[in-house]
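Batch manifest, entry 17 of 40.
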Amino acid sequence: MAGFSNSKANKAFLKKRFNQSKAAGERLIGADYWMVIKGYEHLSILIRTTQLGEFTREDVEDYAPSGVKINQHGVFRNQGEFQFQCAETIGGVVLAAVKEWVLEKAYIDIDIYLASESKDGEWGKPIRSYEMVKLYCDAVDMASEDVTAVVRPSMRAVYNWQE
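Output type: structure tokens
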């Protein structure tokens, strides 16, 4: 028979992996989140996409004799950024909030929760909290031929602290 000489079927191994995977529990899907901008909780239902910002420590690099490189953990990287998008309503509530934040030089706080159907929505502590967030709104696309597209302002959140 042609083929690999060291290849063999192992259905018991595959069944074991299946059972381990099943035992791990229901998977979190990308839509299972709830983002809250503190003081602007009414906007949560309009947030269409978001990200969890980078969560890491600074790298400390050193070179030992003979050029051997060593990396170690440095201080917690408290500052960073992430993107999110909102769906606008005909009342213009998202763009009004953005205008207020920019003109008033406001800093906002944001919490992101896991929110699965199986757990009845958001629960527990936020998976990530961002403090002293400066918001940037990218150019917003509008076009007369976009009769089925929702206006979706894109935001860049630059945070100064994260938990």
